Amino acid sequence: MELILPVPSTKSSNVGLPNELSIELPERLSIRLSKELSKGLSETAATIFRLIYADNYITRGDIAKKVGVSVTAVQKHVNKLKSIRLLDREGSASHGHWIIIEN
After folding, report:
1. Local structure of residue 99 (DSSP, 8 states)
2. Which of 16, 22, 36, 89 has its CA 20 to 30 A from that of 9?
3. Distance between CA 18 and CA 1 in Å, rounded?
4. What's the predicted TM-score (pTM) here?
5. Is 92 or 7 the better-scoring residue by pLDDT?
């Protein structure tokens, strides 16, 4: 008997995203994100991560509009990204910015 498992791509997974959401990540981040996707991270959270990577001053409201989810849903996904140490926030909610954790 042979077991065949899919191997996550090391390239960013932008399939099915509108052009404005097709954001390429550096290889190191792309690999980390692919690993988290294989562990159950949602595609929505990955899209949010890419948007924040592209603009670390983007607001939760702007993310919600671009992704098509509620601000509450964005916060849920952001909390997940923080818990797996891909993302952090510096400063206040209104005058802060996002920090991508690259290690």
Report:
1. E
2. 89
3. 41
4. 0.78
5. 92
